[in-house]
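[Automated response] Your request has been received and processed.

Submitted sequence:
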Amino acid sequence: MVIQVQTPGNFSVKPVQYKKVQVQWTKEQLMNAFKSHDKDGDGKLSMKELKQAFKDLGSAFGFYRAKKALFLADTDNNGYIDITDKELEDLVDYAYDCGYKVPA
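Generated structure:
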C-alpha cells in the first residue's frame, strides 16, 4: 500500500518575527523626565509643562493626565507641581501607575 501526501505548491516557511519588549518607566526615570520639563527653571511644573510631559511619555490624553495629576499632586493648591518636594513624588506615583512604557 502506498500513501501519497500532497503539499501546497506555494508552501514556504516564514521566519518568526518577535516583538520588541517594552519595559515600564522606572520611578527614577519618570522623576528625571518630569524635572526636564521645567522649561523656565522655576522649580515648578505648570499645566502647560505637565501636558507636554505626559505627551512625551506617550499619552494620547495629555491634557486629561495633566489635569488629573495636578488634582492629585498639587497639595498646596497653587496650580503648580513643586519639583523639590513631595508633590513631585505624588506626580511620579500617578504616572507610574498609568504604566507608561519606554519607547523601543
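Summary generated for your ticket: The longest strand covers residues 44-45. The CA atoms of residues 50 and 66 lie 5 Å apart.
If you did not submit this request, please reply to this message.
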